[in-house]
Amino acid sequence: MKAPSATYQPQSQSQSQPHLQYARAPMTARHIESDHTMDKDQHQTAAEMLHSPRLEAPAANSSSCPSADLLFNKARRRRRDPLPERSLPTHCAPLVVEYRRSYRVLIVTALLVSLAASFVTISAGFQLDGSQSSFYTFRKWYTGLNGTLELEFKTEQPNGLVLYTDDGGTYDFFELKLVEGALRLRYNLGGGAQIITVGRELHDGHWHKVQVLRNDDQTSLIVDGVSQQRSTKGKEFQFGKFASNSDVYVGGMPNWYSSKLALLALPSVIFEPRFRGAIRNLVYADQPGGSTRRQEIKQPRDIKCGDVPCDHGELPARERPLRGVRGNTTDACERNDPCQHGGICISTDSGPICECRNLEYDGQYCEKEKAPSEATFRGTQFLSYDLGQTGAEPIVSAQDAISFYFRTRQPNGLLFYTGHGTDYLNLALRDGGVSLTMGLANGKQEMHIKPSKVRFDDHQWHKVTVHRRIQEISSITSFCRLVTVVDDVYTDHSHIAGKFTMLSSSRVYVGGAVNPRALLGARVHNNFVGCLRKVEFSADTLNLNLIDLAKSGSKLIQVAGNLEYQCPSGDPQDPVTFTTRESHLVLPPWETGKQSSISFKFRTKEPNGIIVLATGSKQPRAKNPVLIAIELLNGHIYIHLDLGSGASKIRASRRRVDDGDWHDLILRRNGRDAKVSVDGVWNDFRTPGDGTILELDGHMYLGGVGPAYNSVAWPAAIWTATLRQGFVGCLRDLVLSGKAIDIAAFARVQDSASVKPSCHVQGNVCTGNPCLNGGTCLEGWNRPICDCSSTLYGGPTCGRELATVAFNGSQHMTIWLGNGQGTKTQTEELVIRFKTSRPAGLLLLTSAESNSPDRLEIALVAGRIRASVRLSDREKNLLAGQSVLNDNNWHTIRFSRRASNLRLQVDGAPPVRGMLSETILGRHSTMEIRSIHLGGLFHAEEEIQMTSTMPNFVGQMQGFVFNGQRYLDIVKSLGPELSALPSATFKLTARFVNSPAGQPYHAATFRSKHSYVGLAMLKAYNSISIDFRFKTVEPNGLLVFNGGRRSDFVAVELVNGHIHYTFDLGDGPVTMRDKSRIHMNDNRWHQVSIRRPGPKTHTLTVDDSFEIITLTGNNMHLELAGILYIGGVFKDMYSKLPASISSRSGFEGCLASLDLGDASPSLTSDAVVPSSLVVSGCEGPTKCSQNACANRGVCVQQWNAYACECDMTSYTGPTCYDESIAYEFGNNKGMVQYTYPENAQADTEEDNVAMGFITTKPDAVLLRIESATTQDYMELEIVEGNIFMVYNIGSVDLPLGEIGTKVNDNSYHVVRFQRKGGNATLQLDDYNVQALTPQSHHSTVFNTMSNVQVGGKFSRNGRNRIERPFAGVIAGLSVNKLRILDLAVERDPHITIRGDVQLVTGVLDRNDLQRMQQTLNSTRQTPASGYPGTIDDLIFSGAGSGCRGDDEDECTPPFESGSGDDLITPVYVPPTKQTTTSQQGGNTSSGNNGNGSGSGGSGNNNGTERACDDEDCVHGSGDYGETTEQFTSTSTARGAECEIVFIFLTVIAPWILCKFP
Fold this sequence. Notes:
A hairpin with a 5-residue loop joins strand 63 and strand 64 (about 910-915). By secondary structure, the chain is mainly β. It is about 10% helix and about 35% strand. The chain starts with about 30 loop residues before the first helix and ends with a helix. The strands form 23 sheets. Strands 88, 89, 90, 91, 92, 93, 94, 95, 96, 97, 100, 101 and 102 form a 13-stranded antiparallel beta sheet that branches. The longest helix is centred in the first third of the chain and has 32 residues, at about 95-125. About 40% of the residues are buried.
């Protein structure tokens, strides 16, 4: 099969005219049928037209004339002129003339059709679909010492192997491939590989010609006439040995090479992406001593796979039907593409087939997700390749990338190594962070990514991406940019400069090496232990999935050790860390019975916390519900077990276990008998009663019982549950009745922000005392615990002002627990702060059912604090404090009860202890509490004071905490309506008072709208608590964003000066907005508080504005993922934010006092993603000053700077000092017109117009704005040298002008016009403002603003006649903030430039003013086109001209101004009217503008006959009044093929017509 034979020879850039050469080969039927389905029909049409059996013609006047059928049958046999005159009678002459004319037309038409059909065949080439079996095989290339190779290609893919051949696997090779749209030739002739790269953006869908030329040691690559060459080192320049050289492969490599890499001199070529497109005219010599010729595709019988014949499956799939090259006229892929996930559809006669380009999917339609390529490394296994061992060339590239996922528990280990010679890249895990070292030439670089409080040895999957790119900055120096990203969040980047051109890789190690410490750049000495997934190494177009290659047995990869190609899905040994008191996991019910066991390991430094709680239903004859619980109380382990017949509470540990070390716990039971072991020390116990079965049908809670609204029931004996103290620490190796539980897997799908699937120790968390305002820091588990009870502040670090309530003696606050059902407790713990001047008052009182005497009372008695406790018939009073507590200062009360043990403390005095008779656990130590009263005791319904021995409290309270619940904060967050919560109902008649605002803490300045920081994921699974303060002058910006799984997210943003809080729990986005009367961008501090006090209740408080919403959805959890962004997100992420978020930029200003639940992170030191544009402290803002903006620019306050609004100044630049875009309008008239798009034709109630201008004309129109639907207009004009604006908005013309100053003085003037409704103002320069206020009623709206005319106005007669043209300079034109002249420079498609208009600069320069004056007052010797001496018309068009490429974007303007952003391109247009000959001197003027001049003439022809410039005038006439210009647009021919048709029409067709006159 022959390749198509047309050759196209482009001319070099130095030649002025393109030259075409076509060599037509004989076109066979096979060519026609195989190359394009239309060819056969087109050729047949041509044949039918030439050999038509009959042609209608005028009838002859005599019957002696032969019939039409006879004439054409004879003509068809003779194949020449069908009607020789000598053979016909004279009276048949008319018939002869008609037939000859028709025959000539037939010949021309038939040849045109045939030529068009040939072009289809010529341009098609042979197609390659880029599939895994797509390639063609050609004969060997005999290169000799001066061989050449030529081909043409066309593609839309930027990467692909075009051609490859080598010496059979030794050294020499030629590889031609596309790399990011450039063509790269890599070759080796024995002296080392050389690389030549030519072109860019060659994947444009057009044909490109390629030539490879050899001349001894010189090799050249030429693409479309652009050439580069290299020299080969050494003394021998022969290309291999012709007998053993390989064939020439085009478009890809045969698959059989994958198992015979030793037969390739460049083994990496087998992994190159295949070419997808068309190739034609492959020309080279295929025999020693032979001449170059077009090559034919080798037949299957001639192809060998190595030294043996190929199997059928190994042959190139060249017979596969391709899209658009099929006998079937129906394309199944076009009709219905079934391929999914990026699969490529290939249409065949039997239907579509899918090739899965995305390696993560397979199946018939690429619909099945493949199992990820992964492997488990245990320290002795690793993958590698070493091309140097076989003498093969290294993989070279201008850029490469390494990406993979890893999971490990080990802090150190080699992950990936690649290098060649002394160049290397070493990637490892070091101390739980990602470490990278790189050496390139003589430069070295090192980075270590280890974010604050983040480790990567947590046995979770982490993604690593490393990217290197070489960039030449001079002929001897290059730049290598290095970027490393972990988890798509944590980034580091650097660069190396040196003498290098490419990156090379001859060795790669994955997961380890024989001796990792011997590798260059090594920072770790051991191999990786863990799992690796999707290890990919790409170099330019090459992409290697190393684990896949190893698994498939590729000869490239060597496997050390017994590698297991899968990773365990989960490991029960994986630990989890509970980070807060509310964090917990919910496990399915534990299947127990008569026998059961539980064991786990734990570690913590905190003394209290519930670890395990599981309950069951109460059986019919049982005394209690069944239950098992394990808690840590005062540093000891306690076991609670109830089989329904009685509860047991056993202390299982002999010594404290809150020491930070791992401890083992094992509990086994058989019926009523049980035993427990802590660290190997066993204790036996027995449950009371006769119950022997533990039937647990409720969920098991691990680490805590969740937020207060969780409906979890537990007995009063579990004190840590009552006190809402969850376990904070690590847990691992949980085994339930012999079944190991992967608790880390539960953590990953539940509260992954609060329950971390890892366990690491952070010591000295109180270093530097993170607690503010006098708070006391206590060491917790990886967290500081701030005791703020002695301060005026609360929050995680005692930085937030406490909610304060004032009581006047008749006010109170009541809390009904459990929605009035009450609760039972064996322990209470409370803190309350107060200040008063009264010596007595009731502070707190609990009440129970009417028949229960249980109560707890805290009161001020004679200036001292008394705590009274009554349980049944037992009562105890404690008295503490000095008798001066009514000194109107704040005092703190701390009270606690543990069964019968009481403790009371006031301020920092020693505590007072007491006991309720003997200690009895059980119901005798249980207190019933139905309600809690603060400040006084009132009847719930009648609001009257109930009988009490104590007077009501008068004073203030704050910081009230009862059994872990901060009720004052809860009540304040619920707002004035006090919505009921599942855990409590409230009544408040006292009032909240504003505490003095404290100083902002942890303040940070976001210096740019493009800056942001990243913090650890927001803990908001069950509840949410966000507090922060901000100040800014910017009205918009994203403040907080955390995305999540599926559609869940949470965001806080500033929109038009107001706070928007938006979230989605899976039931759709919900947005809450503040209702403040002021805008928040006033450069003052504002406080934002966001809470979720109930499962469906959300609140937003901004300063004094409060909003609350109750949802009806079913989703209870906010499932977030990733990091918490503060101040914005990265640039590309804004377009991917949920549609309900309006921000498209970040926050610019100050953020401070950020509290996120139990943490107060610093935006600088605690950021896991820091930013150099976010700095500690609150800077700025930079304030506007009186002289900040020049030329009356308006100063706009920003945060870190200010901006000048220059729209009404006619100037531009950062301070309105720079010259704006200016255009000069010549004496020969011109105009710039802007046409509004149809969807942008607005109705305006306000208009603002400003411009600067220079002119000497006393009468002209500078600007006119018109309506599309009405007679509304605005016209800025000069009348007798004075400036006027005349506007009409539906009634009458309203003129407004400055008559005191002439503007036609050749000086620069600025005019500003502003309209609001019917009223308007106009100001010229710095003169007084002229105002117009119409007395009668006028419309206020300018309807449908459609176009702006600059430099004159069009005549009303619709002939595009310019009336009252302006001559001079117009600069800085702004119409409602639309910079018209700027759009003209940018070649906006809505701009039209006509006539004598040109861009000018330096209009404010004095010399330019003088030059301008001379120019405007004298005859112009140069036409408006700017080409001296040119008298032909020049029409200015936004599109290029004179370019014969297929794409206008490729065309270069015929002249360059140096800026690279030319405004207009001149297009030559032949004159459309006759030229007018002057009566004097024979001067000729031509063109629409009449601006051409002969020698000694001028544009005005010295007052004699003027050019005829009206389409209605005749030769010799003229119009001295209005002047009309005709404007013509042109288009250029596109494509070389069109030129050939042009040649045919201008050369061949006339020859035919001459041949048959």
